[in-house]
Design a protein that fits this description.
The complex is a heterotrimer of chains A (about 90), B (about 160) and C (about 110).
Chain A (H helix, E strand, L loop, with lengths): L1 H23 L3 H26 L2 H29 L4
Helix pairs in contact in A: 1-2, 2-3
Chain B lengths: L1 H17 L4 H22 L7 H34 L8 E6 L5 H13 L3 E6 L3 E6 L2 H8 L2 H10 L4
Helix pairs in contact in B: 1-2, 3-6, 4-6
Chain C lengths: L2 H29 L3 H27 L3 H30 L18
Helix pairs in contact in C: 1-2, 2-3
Classes of the chains: A mainly alpha (about 90), B mainly alpha (about 160), C mainly alpha (about 110).
């Protein structure tokens, strides 16, 4: 159980490093890529929380829904720049 | 026939997602599977005239391909990890055009996705006869031009041609 | 050494391997010079990291109906992650973002 806690803390640290790119990223497409990477790590953290509290069968549903939502959000953001044809 | 296949796939998905095995939930599952399949059975499969035996064969060839692909993905990640952990960052990125002879849409999707997942290359544009690929150093670009992956894709999806 | 111990050690090994690939993905996002190269790091590292960690969770949990639900996540991600990478990359091409080229003289290591 302690192992899962340490792993999820480590993933949180990685998320904060990604957040640096998401905030200070030189261009906007880097920010979208960083947000997508944060979404993937959040899915993992949700499953780890399920293990820590012993309710995996509930948190796995939340994780699946979060994966779908973050995928759609990234696609919409990228699609916006496909039609806008400029990143300024 | 495809209608029933869609119903079976949807019902398996229902069982996996709910995990409850009493009569009430299973009945609702069957009813909902038929209801959804009634609207969307022609969206799941691309070529509606293909016989079922051929489709099953294609599925197993695809499964075989997926295992090869996972092995390639592990190699790709080790390559990227080596590039990232090298203090000199020995990358030489460039955009290349990869000509392709594939014809079906599904093989284009599989080929583009596989390129993105494997060593140091991502697809950034798809045209009718070539793909725009961003390669991160020279070795992976040469690997892609050898065409081993395209031959495997053609063996899975374009057998009848 | 019982079966249970082997199970836990194998699961821990897979989870740590997944964490290693997550780490390289993050470091790549920090170190690579332009966003096409950063897509290389995120698109590949996160996919394999997720797959390995899910395999570790499945081994830890033992095989029952929940394992099939675990499989759904990497199954979805193996279709979604290349799609996302491709769509961001195509947005970059459409907006005429110039890719970073290696310069001949030294001093190209700085990463913003």
């Amino acid at each position: 159980m302690l192992f899962f806690t340490i792993v999820s803390f480590y993933l949180c640290v990685l998320i904060f490093i990604n957040l640096y790119r998401a905030i200070y990223g030189p261009d906007i497409l880097t920010r979208i890529a960083a947000i997508n990477a944060i979404g993937t790590k959040t899915v993992m953290i949700l499953i780890l929380i399920g293990f820590i509290y012993g309710r995996v069968e509930m948190f796995i549903d939340i994780a699946i829904v979060y994966a779908l939502l973050s995928f759609i959000a990234t696609i919409v953001a990228a699609k916006y720049f496909l039609t806008r044809r400029s990143i300024e | 026939m495809l209608y029933l296949t869609t119903v079976v796939i949807l019902f398996i998905l229902w069982i996996v997602m709910s995990g409850i095995f009493d009569a009430f939930h299973l009945t609702i599952g069957v009813l909902m599977s038929f209801f959804i399949a009634h609207f969307s059975w022609d969206l799941l499969f691309q070529n509606t005239k293909m016989p079922l035996s051929e489709r099953v064969g294609e599925f197993f060839r695809f499964l075989n391909y997926v295992f090869w692909l996972i092995y390639q993905i592990i190699l790709a990640n080790l390559h990227v990890a080596r590039l990232v952990l090298d203090p000199k960052l020995p990358i030489n990125p460039k955009i290349i055009r990869v000509p392709t002879k594939l014809t079906k849409d599904i093989s284009f999707v599989a080929y583009a996705n596989s390129i993105t997942l494997t060593p140091g290359t991502i697809t950034i544009g798809v045209e009718r006869d070539h793909l725009l690929v961003h390669a991160i150093d020279d070795r992976v670009a040469d690997d892609l031009f050898s065409g081993a992956m395209e031959r495997r894709i053609a063996r899975v999806f374009e057998v009848g041609k | 050494m019982t079966f249970h111990t082997i199970q836990i050690i194998t699961a821990g090994f897979f989870i740590l391997a997944g964490l290693f690939f997550f780490t390289t993905a993050t470091l790549g996002l920090l170190r690579f010079p332009d966003f096409y190269c950063r897509l290389h790091a995120t698109g590949k590292g996160d996919t394999l990291g997720t797959l390995l960690m899910i395999v570790g969770f499945m081994i830890y949990e033992g095989f029952h109906l929940l394992s099939l639900k675990f499989i759904l996540i990497p199954l979805f991600l193996f279709m979604a992650s290349p799609t996302v990478t491709h769509s961001i990359g195509r947005a970059g091409v459409t907006c005429d973002v110039e890719p970073w080229e290696k310069k001949e003289q030294s001093g190209t290591e700085e990463t913003e």
